[in-house]
User: What shape does this take?
Amino acid sequence: MMIRIPFNKQYYTGQEIGYIREALLEEGRGDSYFTNLCAAFFEKEYQIPQVFMTTSGTHALEMAVLLLGLEPGQEVIMPSFTFPSTANSVLLRGVVPVFAEIAETTLNLDPEDIKRKITHRTRAIMPVHYGGTACAMDEIISIARAHGLYLVEDAAQGINAKYRDRYLGTWGDLGCISFHSTKNIACGEGGALFINSKEPQILKRAEIIWNKGTNRTQFLRGEIERYSWVGTGSNYTPGELGMAVLWAQLKQADLITAKRKGIYEYYREGLASYKGKGLIGLPVIPEGVQSNYHIFYMIFSSERIRKRVQDELNKRGIQAVIHFVPLHSSAMGKKLGYVPEDLPVTERVGKSLLRLPLYNSMTDQEKEYVLENVQDVLERID
Ligand SMILES: *Cc1c(COP(=O)(O)O)cnc(C)c1O
Assistant: This one.
């Protein structure tokens, strides 16, 4: 019997509709009630000096770059194996994204290549925690310190994951989170900017940039009588209905991570022997890293085999999908002067990686169907 298994399903905890009703109908729910609850949750639980909920992960990244005041011609080192938003956030300010290579084990930035890419124009490093599994932060932090560079974590996929017992997004000067419907914890569109920096310049400007260049946030706190235009900024404040949904999900963060871990471990155990035979590569979670199990992938020895496995799984109703087209070899990357050969590991991974369905509400029957079929297809590879 064929079962249709989508790659992803947005999770529903059961509390969302109640909070949406509350946001719409209850007295005293102003335009930032759930937004403030979510921000306060992170400030307290994650011990972050200042948190801004945003319209998206993309906007958290854009706000981060605005806050650092980076200038045209300066450079930011980031992986090519990421979503375009990482690079767009700097390009929009005329800043140059410099793509560095990833390590084959974790698909995260290779610290050695970061060092090779540093020039006198470099101002920041933007590590991306791929699949919610932390980058080699000890090494990356020491490189940033040694060269006086800002650290902005693209932790868009990293909610509720940790490195050495501290949450992702709280290691850099700034950390950016996404709650897009494809992420572990989701509200359709949404994000957060974690401000860990203690630079007064950054803290002071953040709420102005966030709220359309005005001091409206101060006004809402009752500190001033009226608000007005005080600086440059944009509208990064999220809608209350999305934040009401997020509030329901945040309270179940650990449960969600545990559910995903179960599916991830089930796949990993069921496919270990194929890794042993050298047929596939599987995700690696290094010592001291607690993943949020955002992605389960297999890497094949060639694009041809990846395509064959993908086609076969798709025919059996399983929506197995590739991931990032490396930024350096995309149409835009070529315009920036890159050629595919510049980053051979990234290029190979981009072509030969295949992700399996993994969502919080996956049933035993669904995960068994996926694993049995993957095993069957792998048996037939010649
Ligand atoms: C999802 C994602 C983003 C963008 O987040 P949105 O909330 O969709 O804007 C940025 N970077 C990475 C690595 C992502 O996975």
User: Anything to note?
Assistant: The chain has a mean pLDDT of 96. The chain has 14 helices and twelve strands. The CA atoms of residues 303 and 352 lie 5 Å apart.
